[in-house]
Each structure stands twice: as structure tokens, then as C-alpha cells.
Specification:
Oligomer: single chain
CATH class of the largest domain: Mainly Alpha
Number of strands: 0
CATH topology of the largest domain: Arc Repressor Mutant, subunit A
Strand content: under 5%
Number of helices: 8
Number of domains: 2
Order of helices and strands: HHHHHHHH
Helix content: 55-70%
Largest sheet: none
Distance between the termini: 48 Å
Shape: globular
CATH superfamily of the largest domain: Winged helix-like DNA-binding domain superfamily/Winged helix DNA-binding domain
Radius of gyration: 19 Å
Amino acid sequence: MSDAELVRQALAGQAEAYAELVRRWMPRVLAVCHARVRRADAAEDLAQEALLRGYRALGTLTHPERFGAWLHGIALRACLDWLKARERGTVPFSALGGCDPDGLPHPRDGNDVPALDRDDERRRLLAEVEALPQEYRTVVMLYYYENVTYRELAETLGVSTATVNARLTKARALLRARLSPAWR
């Protein structure tokens, strides 16, 4: 069933139709939020906020077939609102050191060195992705972390597939240049 049909059903009062839209779009909305705010914990909250805002404003959607792009815009606005807010004083446990990105302590015995090295590499890669300029960070997060196709990316971002390709190519080049010296 298409997004447009699910939107129509949700507007007709069928809550399970919007639940299906949430299942379809949550990973992409989360990736967009993570790319924008660069914090996994905040991104999850903002993705939920964007989906709630979308539900509340569903009646204002004039082109149901463009639900994804519309929701993407709502997610971006939610992120911008968060970034402008003054009350962002929380620090994730992972920023304190000695924790993985989920806030769990690292194992300390010597048998886990290879796993710790992989974790360090993964964290470094994610940090470099998060340091990319916004337009590159967004396409990388959606393409690699959410397996979104070029066509879906183009539709969601409101650009051509050639632009998506150019942004991914540039992002890869930037990442290669930033990571190569450390990983040789």
C-alpha cells in the first residue's frame, strides 16, 4: 500500500495506518535527526517529536504522495528548534569516557583488545561522519545506515539523483582523506 493511501486512511481515523507510516519512515527520520544534531540520544527524541508533529499536522498535508518529503521537513524543523533551544545542558555518559555509545562501560580485561580497537575505529568513523558538512552527513547517514536508495534519497531531500550521487562521492572523498592517515 502506498504512503498516500495510508495518509488517506489515517485522515479517515484509522490509527493503524499512521502506525504503518511510522514503521516505514522512523529509520529515515532518525537518520536525518542524527545527522543534524550529531547526538544519538537527542536524535531519538527528535525523531519521535517529528512523527508526533506529523500526526498532529497530517490534515495540512496537501499532497499525500509527498508524505516522506513533508515528514523530512518536519524532522528538520524539530532539529532546528532543538538546536536553537538554550536547554541542552545534558551530557551523555559516553562523552565522559570509558563508555561505549550506548553509555555502557567498556570491558577492561586484556582479552577484548581487538573488540575495543574495532569499537574505537567505529567511533572514529562515526565522529568523522558527524563532522561532515550537513548536506554530506545527511546522505551518508541515510544511504549507509538506513539503506535508502538514490531515488528515495532524491525524493526525500528534494534533489536529483545526480545530486545525491555527487554528495555521496564528495562525502566518501572527505572521509577517505580524514581517515586514511590514521588507518594506514
